[in-house]
From TrEMBL:
Protein family according to the UniProt entry: Belongs to the radical SAM superfamily. 7-carboxy-7-deazaguanine synthase family.
Ranges where the record places region Disordered: 1-21
Name assigned to this protein: 7-carboxy-7-deazaguanine synthase
Gene3D superfamilies: Aldolase class I (3.20.20.70)
Organism: Arenimonas composti TR7-09 = DSM 18010
Gene that specifies this protein: queE
GO molecular function, one term: S-adenosyl-L-methionine binding
Annotated substrate binding sites: V33, Q34, G35, R48, T91
Cofactor note: Binds 1 [4Fe-4S] cluster. The cluster is coordinated with 3 cysteines and an exchangeable S-adenosyl-L-methionine.
Cofactor (UniProt): Mg(2+); [4Fe-4S] cluster; S-adenosyl-L-methionine
Subunit structure: Homodimer.
Amino-acid positions noted as binding Mg(2+) in the UniProt annotation, renumbered to this chain: T61
Length: 233
């Protein structure tokens, strides 16, 4: 199989196809190194869906808000298989904004892939196939989208999932620490604290975590360390 590390970009604004049947609107499919969460470091195919109802201040994928093209789910599966790796990450935008993504996730699992879903946590995660590792981003105050957090998702999280906080300043950290205690999050799933790039120094966040002995995993976005903000990497 072809394993070249190149992006299969979907032309911006392409309106080929219609939103009926087993179709999803995609921005790109590409092979890269997983930069976050439990599968960090693994060669991974990323399926980036188009569209997101949120507008976080620190968003680094605003190019996925619009455009894209309609893909048949069969074509998505064929493109994923072409890259020849075991791990697949479905991301966005906000993938759960397209309801047919649930069928794609199930079919990827049926095909034997190790599947993760990156979601804002603003939409219901209950319908996601239990074989999928759900990486839920709980929005902090500095995101300007904290009011969109769907707290009903928290009791649904299991040890198979991860909950991510992007920390932009000390106020974000204090809020996240409070949520950790109030909802006993570390007992539900793995909790990740990630510094907002250019907003808080990684070493400073690490020192806060150590000082408070928080039961969380500090993480950097490995793909940004390697390639910066280049799309499709």
């Amino acid at each position: 199989m072809n394993t070249e590390a190149t992006s299969t970009a979907v032309p911006s604004g392409d309106t080929a196809g219609t939103p009926g049947g087993d179709r999803l609107r995609l921005t790109e499919i590409f092979l890269s190194v997983q930069g976050e969460a439990r599968h960090v470091g693994w060669p991974t195919v990323f399926v980036r869906l188009t569209g997101c109802p949120l507008r976080c201040t620190y968003c680094d994928t605003a190019y996925a808000f619009h455009g894209g093209a309609w893909w048949d789910i069969d074509a998505i599966l064929a493109e994923v298989a072409r890259h020849g790796v075991r791990h697949v990450c479905v991301t966005g935008g906000e993938p759960l904004a397209q309801k047919r993504v649930l069928g794609l996730l199930a079919r990827l699992c049926d095909a034997g892939y190790e599947v993760s879903l990156e979601t804002s946590g603003a939409l219901d995660i209950a319908g996601v196939d239990p074989r999928v590792s759900r990486v839920v981003d709980l929005k902090t105050p500095a995101s300007a989208e904290m009011h969109r957090n769907r707290l009903e998702n928290l009791p649904l999280l299991t040890a198979h999932d991860q909950l991510k906080f992007v920390i932009c300043d000390r106020a974000d950290y204090e809020w996240a620490r409070g949520m950790l205690a109030e909802h006993r999050l570390a007992g539900r799933c793995e909790v990740l604290f990630s510094p907002g790039m250019g907003l808080v120094a990684p070493g400073e966040l690490a020192e806060w975590i150590l000082a408070d002995r928080l039961p969380v995993r500090f993480q950097l976005q490995l793909h940004k360390v390697l390639w910066g903000d280049a799309p499709g990497r």
